[in-house]
Structure formats: C-alpha cells, structure tokens
Amino acid sequence: MRKDAMAETWPKSMKAVELAVLISRRRIRAREQRRPPLQQCSKLHTSPIRASGIIANKCSGEVAMRDFNVNDFLATIGEGRTIAEVTKKEIIYAQGVACDAVFYIIEGKVILTVLSTLGKEATIAILGEGAFFGEGCIAGQSLRMGSATALTDCKVMRIESKAMMLALHRDHTFSDMFVAYLLGRNIRYEEDLVDQLFNSSEKRLARILLLLAHFGKEGKPEKVIPKISQETLAEMVGTTRSRVNFFMNRFRKLGFIHYNGELEVHSSLLNVVLHDSPHHGGSSNGPRAAKAKETLNKPVSSR
After folding, report:
1. What is the chain's mean pLDDT, rounded?
2. Measured in Å, how far apart are the chain's first and last C-alpha atoms?
3. Strands 154-160 and 121-127: what pairing?
4. Taking the CA of residue 256 as centre, how many other CA atoms within 13 Å lie in the half-sphere pointing to its CB?
5. Burial class (CB in 10 A: 0-12, 13-18, 19+), 141
6. Which ranges constitute the DSSP H helices of the chain?
7. Number of H helices, E strands in the chain
8. What is the pLDDT of residues 37-50, one digit of tens each?
9. How many CB atoms lie within 10 A of CB 135?
10. Is the entire prediction scored with pTM above 0.85?
11. Nearest-CA neighbor of 204 among 278, 290, 123?
12. Residues with Cβ < 8 Å from 15, sequence gap 6 or more?
C-alpha cells in the first residue's frame, strides 16, 4: 500500500521540483539583467584596495580598475611613491647599497657610473627627463651594481619595488610603457657596444654628442649639458681626455659644435658619423662640406 502511494506521489513531487527549478532560473536571469555594471555593484567591499595610486574593487571575484592615469602616477606622491629634489652632484644611490626601489626622472639629468675593484670609474649613461633607472630591484637584484648621481639639479620620484610590481601587474598601459622603455634602452646599449667595437674614437664621440643633444630637426642646434667635462666624455667614449680635447677642437673649427657657456651641437655633426656613407650625409656641396670632408679624411689615430 505504501509503495502504491509513493508511486502515485512521485511524479507529482518531481513536477513540483522541476517547476521550482524553472522559477528559480527565471528569477536569477531577471536579477542578472537588472544588475548594475561592475563599477556600481552594490556588493563591493567597503574597503577598496589602494596600491600605488591604483583603485581596485572586488565584485563577484573580478577586479575593476578605475581612474588610473600614468602621468598622474609618475608625477604625484602616493603609497610607495615619494618625490625628492636633488641638487647637482648629489648621490641618489651608491654602488653596493640595498636595491629596493625604482627611480623616475621628472626634471634634470642623472649620470650612471660603475667603479671597478681597481678603482677605475666608467660612465654607463646620462639619462634625462622621462627615464627610469635602478629597475634591477624588480628583477631580483639585491645590491646596486653602480651609482647614480645628479648631473644637474633634479626632481626624482622614488617608487618602492612592491608598489612598482603592483602597478605593472594591475595596469596594462603602464606596463606596456615601461617594457617599451626597457626595450628601447636595451637597443641603445647594443648600439653602444657595436659602436665601441667597430668605430673610431672620433665617430664614437660624435655619436655620443648627438645622443646627448637629442638630435632631431635638421639644422637646429640643441643644448646638451651645461659644463659637461671632457673627462666624462672620455669615459663614455672609452678613450683619453687628450683625444677628446683634440676632436672637440676639430668639431668646433668645422662648425659642428659651438661653445657659449653651454655646449650646442649642430645636426651637421652627423657627417662625422656617416662620412664613410656620403649618400646618407645630406648635401655634399658647399665649402663647409668640402672642408669637413678634407679634414675628416686626414689620417688620425683612432685610439
């Protein structure tokens, strides 16, 4: 008797369950359609995550990025970020100290150097506005491999390694910009190595002056660095100060550079770098070009 009763009630109970499931699905679908966007979700945590100027909110296991601006991030103080004004010749960090932050140049110029165990110092690079340095900390470097010194009065941002890693992971625009910068600088280092291996001291000096001047429009002189020493140029070129002095005097006589308290570099200096390829050196006519060609073809020791 009990089995018969169960047999009669079983189809009814199954129909009731199916009906309840159908109603529940419809309610869920209707609720999802009425749900606001992720940024306006009412189930947001009361305490948003704030890291390195990034505001992230959690809702349904997803992270919503809001109001991140790369320019603001690199120009304002925030969690893990400080801005300091550094005077000329002041050491930003020294070789051998703990590596725990990345630096970004807002204003001014910074020189990177390395000191050997024998006491010989070499200049790695001179960086200007918009450049990063000291990024070895985010690659696991524990100690600084070189020193960074202000070449002029500077304004520098210090970004702690944890804040930098968070920013790179959380914002694709910033990470793309940073990776592009590192790749560009890596290409520059490769070009420096090829230049050092295959070109003469004269060509290397000309190339460095053009790079320091941010060589751009034709015929427009651009300021380099006030009172840059020939010793520094010699370290960057990989030659002696006397050779740098000799080539600088030659460049000045040819009108490639000009001294007036500050060093100005003219685009015509490119003739020195490309004089073996005259088709890339622009116009080959005129007395200045003829004089430059005659002078540059004179035999000069490359070291």
Report:
1. 75
2. 112
3. unpaired
4. 27
5. middle
6. 2-34, 70-73, 161-170, 172-198, 201-212, 230-237, 241-253, 270-274, 287-296
7. 9, 14
8. 544 443 333 333 33
9. 20
10. no
11. 123
12. none
Average pLDDT over residues 215-221: 54
In total, the chain counts a number of residues equal to 303
Secondary-structure breakdown of the chain: helix, strand, coil percentages, each rounded to the nearest 5: 45, 25, 30
Burial bucket for residue 113 (CB in 10 Å: 0-12, 13-18, 19+): middle
In this structure, of 145-149, 159-163, 239-243, 288-292, the range with the lowest mean pLDDT score is: 288-292
Pairwise CA distance, residues 123 & 239, whole Å? 12
Position 89, amino acid: K
Lowest mean pLDDT across 75-89, 165-179, 220-234, 250-264: 220-234
Tokens of residue 247, six digits? 């080539």
Amino acid letter for position 207: R
How much is the average pLDDT of 228-234?
86
